[in-house]
């Protein structure tokens, strides 16, 4: 350990400049160009401490952090930014779907085969755009009708958690395009709450194949291998059927 110094001794001019921590691992750089090795003893009269910024020092500087964050963002390519935003919106849609499934399970636990319709619209942007809509008489009748029908033997498509999938997947604030279909697919496993769309692994209906062919002829896009249009929805395409079930 190095002996302590007075202030006058610490700030002597133009002798040896210390550029590392104290102790045997210190490295001293002389003003005449001669460097000392770690562990070398340096004459007390020639020691001078100079400010040193360690490469391992953690700076607590908000402005510096902002600059570094901005630089990191500027290094991202448009494709990387697009993928990041896409992943966020897809994760959000999946989170909302899990909430809907949980509400369906809670309704069944209470002996209700189908939850109230108002419990199946989760996206806040659409709830703000449609204030008090679920309290109107026509919506109350619709909710009672679908609960009554769900007690029968006829299956209802899509599954309850996906009835408002078109709205839950495409936030109102991101809406750019509206594509309107007629009614949900009536085959098992086909309907997913987005018009013309089918889940991965399900054969594409002819109507969807025709849409893809038109897109290919118009803008040259290659034909996809599946019919899941969820990525359209999260980018602002509202895939809405005139009849939701």
From TrEMBL:
One of its GO terms (biological process) is base-excision repair, AP site formation via deaminated base removal. Residues 28-51 are annotated as: Disordered. InterPro entries: UDG_fam1, Ura-DNA_Glyclase_AS, Uracil-DNA_glycosylase-like_sf. One of its GO terms (molecular function) is uracil DNA N-glycosylase activity. Gene3D superfamilies: Uracil-DNA glycosylase-like domain (3.40.470.10). Transmembrane segments: none annotated. The active site is at residue 183. Signal peptide: none annotated. Keywords: DNA damage, DNA repair, Hydrolase. Belongs to the uracil-DNA glycosylase (UDG) superfamily. UNG family. PANTHER family: URACIL-DNA GLYCOSYLASE (PTHR11264). This is Uracil-DNA glycosylase. It comes from Taxus chinensis (Chinese yew).
